[in-house]
Amino acid sequence: MRVQCYLAALLSIATFALAVPAIDSAVKPNAGLRLIKTSATDQGTWVTEDDKISNYAAKKIAFVDITDIKDPETLARLSSPSADIAPVAAIAYPTTLSHQTEANALIAKTNTNGPQSWLMTLTNFYNRYYRSTYGTQASTWLFNTVKSLTASNPSITVTQFPHSFSQPSIIARIPGTSSNLIIVGGHFDSTGGSSTARGPGADDNGSGVVTILEALRVLSDAKYAPKNTLEFHFYAGEEGGLLGSADVYAQYKSARKNVLAFVNQDMTGYSPSGKISVYNDYVDTSLTAYVRRIVSGYIGSSTSDSCGYACGDHASANANGFPAAYVCDEPDQTSSPYIHSSRDYALDTRAG
Ligand SMILES: [Zn+2]
């Protein structure tokens, strides 16, 4: 299990404490249909909820569900090529590493016992599809697990973030002396390739969830008191078109929250190369350079790739003007062939 590499990166991050055509979403041909976009230039297609999974997610065609996105700036950014999306505010990230002693002491407290056990529970849900009762049950289990893991530090708050569907996202917050936010997150929903299929979602993205949980456990037990406020996000409905993170970052934008960094942790468990992959598109260039610096300082060389439009929750943060980075277990070519299927049940590269 590569989880400890990702934990090292996460915990070291924690120490730092357009003019485009409008999308015609006014005409909705039938109630219940959803408007999705598969590229910056795609004007949008109305599809059923089931089509989103069977005709897109199962075929690994990434999309963003824009039905409920109303903010014109966000829609404009979703219609811009990655290279044309400017950061809203330039943030000066550190150019050298610091706090290594604190970070290494925290990293030494990590182990894989919790992650293995939590992953077993997550994959034992029939699926974690965001519109299924299993998906709701998985959200409730995760909420209770996050609360119990953080009980060692009463200053940590854990809340459910409701959506229009019955699977809330979950947010844990370690207050800092500043309200500026550093966010680590990943989605906990899964899909097996149809709305009714078995979807264990081990690599995608049980692995990212348990990585984040272990980082949160260690920081909670250490009573870690950051300068910046740290948040740990577990997003619902990512496989339905980035739904959970779209709602969260739309709310953060309208509340004018000052997000200094968001690192998306989507797939950390299947890695033939054994190297962390830091992705280059629909992310903030400066933050991504800083993440690379952290990986190189704590773990070693990284790989890189681009994953295209709407490939994960970092795209929601990016669309709402927040600086995001994306770390993954592999470049696209060598990533798990089992995701979005009933076979995403093991993290060993020989799975299947
Ligand atoms: Zn995923």
From TrEMBL:
Cofactor(s) essential for the protein: Zn(2+)
Q: Which EC number(s) are documented for this chain?
A: 3.4.-.-
Task: Give the Peptidase M28 domain ranges.
Answer: 170-344
rRNA processing found in the keyword field: no
The record's annotation in InterPro entries points to: M28_fam, Peptidase_M28
Q: Which top class of enzyme applies to this chain?
A: hydrolase
Q: Which GO terms describe its molecular function?
A: aminopeptidase activity; metal ion binding; metalloexopeptidase activity
Pfam family of the protein (one):
Peptidase_M28
Report the superkingdom from the record: Eukaryota
Database matches in SUPFAM superfamilies: Zn-dependent exopeptidases
| Segment forming the signal sequence | 1-19
Query: Which of UniProt's keywords are assigned here?
Result: Aminopeptidase, Disulfide bond, Hydrolase, Metal-binding, Protease, Signal, Zinc
Q: Which residues cross the membrane?
A: none
> What biological processes does GO assign it?
proteolysis
Report the sequence similarity comment from the record.
Belongs to the peptidase M28 family. M28E subfamily.
What is its quaternary makeup?
A: Monomer.
What name goes with this protein?
Answer: Peptide hydrolase
Look up and give the organism this protein is from: Heterodermia speciosa
